[in-house]
Design brief:
The protein is an alpha+beta fold and 320 residues long. The protein is built from 6 helices and 25 strands. Strands 10, 18, 20, 21, 23 and 24 form a 6-stranded mixed β-sheet that branches. 13% of the residues are buried.
């Protein structure tokens, strides 16, 4: 304790310590003085004010309504504490006050300032507003129901496959616009989507592509593309004959062939409908021989890499 007391006495008597204390004292006094002058005088500040338009349900705005207005306000410094602490008030514009009945909603700068003055601090002076005015096209016509055309490219990874059709949450939307534009729109498209190397079912919300001078509801749909893993399989299939004329019978040796393929995992136990055939019309009778080409016939679309154990078989033709 004696050591600590002696140390404090030395620090208190140190010229360097006294200088630091004096400096800190002046800083504090200056800060207080600056704060007094600043918060008691007029200062200027930009604040963001949210905007809403109170409109009837049957009215649709055809161009973007600004989310906020940047308002330059001059006021006493201490009053700005309320802007910093509290959320900015929302400016709500009544549709009936600013619509002209012909598809135009206009609020000029003077009316914007007047409306803002009603929601801001009554002592505040509004120096400027950005944007300076609001000018929006609207329509009150009923919407036109049109089909959705998907613009989606999906590619699974090599050992996977798309097993099933693309599923949409809905197949049509409503388009709102003026009469001329509605007459020209007969379908809408989704935004372009490309997904590669899929290893699982794709589920995604896709927006409807923008249409100038029109709005779409809903503005996005959900899609699903079923994807499954492929597994190698093998089976024996009887060979059929195509295009044999009446009274002609083709005997094949062998009469069946082994087929290897890859199928979706969920189909491993299904009875798969494969056809393997030879075509009577493919025989070239001008050149003697007893072999005919074997071809893959019908195969389910989800099955990949179908291969035959042999590409031809022997045949004998019998006529009755």
């Amino acid at each position: 304790m004696k050591f600590w007391s002696r140390t404090r006495e030395k620090l208190d008597e140190s010229p360097r310590t006294k200088s630091i204390l004096q400096y800190l004292t002046f800083v504090v006094i200056s800060a207080v003085f600056w704060g007094f002058l600043t918060f008691n005088g007029n200062i200027q500040l930009d604040i963001e004010v949210p905007v809403e338009i109170n409109k009837p349900d049957n009215v649709h705005m055809l161009s973007k309504v600004p989310d906020t207005l940047t308002v330059t306000v001059r006021d006493r410094g201490y009053r700005f504490f309320s802007y910093l602490i509290h959320k900015s008030p929302t400016l709500t514009l009544r549709f009936s006050d600013y619509s002209d009945g012909n598809g135009n909603f206009k609020v000029d700068q003077s009316h914007l300032k007047k409306a803002l003055a009603a929601v801001l601090n009554r002592h505040a002076v509004i120096e400027g507003v950005l944007p300076e005015s609001i000018n929006i096209k609207y329509t009150d016509l009923p919407g036109k129901k049109v089909p959705i055309m998907t613009d989606i490219t999906v590619e699974p990874r090599e050992d996977y496959t798309i097993y099933g059709a693309l599923i949409q949450s809905q197949d049509s939307v409503y388009v709102f616009s003026d009469a001329k534009t509605l007459g020209e729109i007969n379908e809408v498209y989704t935004s372009h989507v490309v997904v590669n190397d899929l290893t699982d079912t794709l589920r995604r919300k896709v927006s409807i592509a923008h249409i100038n001078g029109a709005v779409v509801e809903p503005r996005a749909i959900d899609i699903m593309v079923p994807v499954e893993k492929l597994k190698s399989q093998k089976r024996t299939v009887n060979i059929g004959v195509r295009n044999a004329p009446p009274g002609v019978k083709m005997l094949l040796f062998p009469s069946d062939v082994e087929v290897t393929y890859r199928s979706p995992v969920s189909c491993l136990k299904d009875e798969v409908v494969f056809t393997v055939v030879v075509d009577y019309n493919s025989i070239d009778f001008t050149h003697p021989g007893n072999n005919v080409k074997v071809q893959v016939g019908e195969v389910p679309a989800a099955y990949k890499d179908v291969e035959l154990s042999q590409d031809s078989v022997e045949y004998i033709i019998e006529k009755h």
